[in-house]
Design brief:
Radius of gyration: 40 Å
Number of helices: 10
Order of helices and strands: HEHHEEEEHHEHHEHEHHEE
Structural class: alpha+beta
Helix content: 55-70%
Number of strands: 10
Length: about 500
């Protein structure tokens, strides 16, 4: 964020000094453009928000598996009603009752992920006040109670959550690094979009100036009868074509400038003075190294594992939730009651409770077996899909490395052919000016120069985009020999 404001401040300062300028001019290299985009561009803010959301989801998951301490109280519960009461004689009568109950307890609960059960401990106190003619207050204490609840054969969701949730958070962190590299690739694409549009405008302006000069010369030659009218018309058509090309190039530049400005999150109107990386760096990418870093850093690898774990979880759920369900729960503790608070804690009595519950499906018309077969079939499908996706992933890395080497060669070749076409145009133009060749040969040289220029610009852009795409695919910068996994702090 600081880089963005520094650059914009400098651009504004320059625009104020230059009174003739209507817009601030921002000078950027490709590297600076990418850093600016990765500071606080809109796409980056979205990626950061997504990562922050995943972080808090993971924090919530971690909290679920730590001891949960809670305080519960009823202060007070007042009851003044006429209730139906069974008397000692066995008869039933409606008797007015008036009492107030106050209670408080503190409990601690802990999940046990390995077994899928829970254990707890609590302490509590309750006071009962009876109103009316026989006023009385009494206390019920539970100094300590410990217990557990444990399924025997049921589905253990705790175990699977402990496996999948940390994997999903790691996946989110890798996705964040990949999103940042995707921002770098998009920034490079928009950078070259503006740069090529700027070069096209300059070339179109030069072409128009050349066309104007040639048209004036052609008019002079036609007036003295040295060229035919058809040649003059060809030169005039070339001039009109050059003027139309300049208009198109100017419009393309305006659009590409707006695209880059919006992508960088710059709200003020600016013009860009871009400094492109003309030199093609001489570094190679080893296929095995690229594959090693891709398998180590990319989110797809974790996603392959997550997909298989989710499918295995569904099989376990289909078996656990449709079979015999046995649950054991129990608690032990101390308890006492008395008319006084001190007496309620004197010589407490022990209390025990043990419950065994059993649920056995007898007839489900094949529902349990169907769900199990579906889950197992889905698991096999996922395993085959993951295996095929992994093969495709590795093949894509190898193909991209081969393409990168080819694009480097093409960029160097395009640069050389562009230089040759420029020299050829200069020679052809001089020959035309002295009357050695006609307008047809000149137009061929102009068209060849423009073609080679476009080829060179496109090859240069393709090479650098391939470089940043390789960074995104491997999260490794082979030019700087450094990893691109981003340190995430919250």
């Amino acid at each position: 964020m600081k880089l963005k404001y520094i650059l914009l401040t400098l651009a504004l300062f320059v625009s104020i000094i230059g009174e003739s300028q209507e817009k601030a001019v921002l000078t950027l290299t490709l590297d600076e453009t990418i850093k600016l985009a990765q500071s606080d561009a809109p796409n980056v803010l979205i990626a950061q928000t997504q990562l922050s959301n995943n972080y808090w989801i993971f924090r919530s998951f971690e909290a679920d598996y730590k001891p949960q301490v809670s305080f519960n109280a009823t202060l007070p519960s007042l009851n003044r009603t006429i209730n139906q009461v069974t008397l000692p004689s066995g008869s039933v009568s409606f008797i007015p009752q008036s009492f107030m109950r106050n209670s408080a307890d503190v409990s601690i609960t802990q999940r046990v992920s390995r077994t899928g059960g829970t254990v707890f401990a609590s302490t509590g106190l309750e006071r009962l006040d009876i109103f009316g003619t026989n006023k009385e207050s009494s206390y019920l204490s539970n100094p300590i109670t410990v217990g557990f609840s444990q399924p025997i054969f049921g589905f253990n969701s705790f175990k699977w959550d402990k496996k999948i949730a940390p994997l999903e958070f790691d996946l989110a962190k890798r996705n964040y690094s990949e999103n940042m590299e995707a921002v770098a690739t998009d920034a490079a694409r928009l950078f070259f979009g503006v740069y090529i549009a700027q070069i096209s405008v300059k070339a179109a302006e030069q072409d128009l100036a050349n066309a104007d000069t040639l048209y004036q010369i052609a008019q002079g030659r036609f007036s003295v009868g040295k060229i035919a009218e058809t040649d003059l018309l060809q030169v005039e058509i070339s001039q009109m074509g050059a003027d139309a090309a300049l208009s198109r190039a100017t419009l393309d530049l305006q659009q590409s400038t707006e695209n880059l400005r919006n992508f960088l999150g710059i709200k003020n109107a600016v013009d860009f003075n871009l400094i492109p990386p003309i030199e093609i760096p001489d570094f190679g990418i080893d296929v095995d190294k690229a594959l090693e870093y891709a398998l180590k850093n990319r989110s797809e690898i974790l996603d392959f594992e997550r997909r298989k774990l989710v499918a295995e979880q569904n099989v376990d759920r289909a078996v656990g939730e449709n079979g015999v369900d046995i649950r054991v729960s129990g608690r032990v503790g101390l308890s006492q009651t008395d008319l006084t608070l001190a007496g309620a804690y004197a010589s407490p009595l022990d209390q025990e409770q043990l419950t065994l519950s059993l649920s056995v499906p007898i007839m489900d018309w094949g529902k349990a077996e169907s769900e199990r077969q579906i889950a197992e079939s889905n698991l096999k499908v996922v395993q085959m899909q993951v295996e095929q996706d992994r093969i495709n992933f590795e093949q894509n890395i190898r193909l991209r490395v081969q393409q990168f080497d080819l694009l480097r060669t093409q960029a160097k070749l395009a640069e050389r052919t562009y230089e040759v076409s420029q020299k050829n145009f200069d020679i052809t133009k001089k020959r035309y000016l002295i009357g050695k060749i006609g307008v047809t040969e000149l137009n061929i040289a102009i068209a060849e120069q423009e073609k080679r220029r476009q080829n060179y610009m496109n090859a240069l852009r393709a090479f650098w985009l391939a470089h940043y795409e390789m960074r995104a695919l491997t999260l490794y910068d082979f030019m700087k020999s450094e990893e691109l996994q981003r340190e995430v702090r919250f």
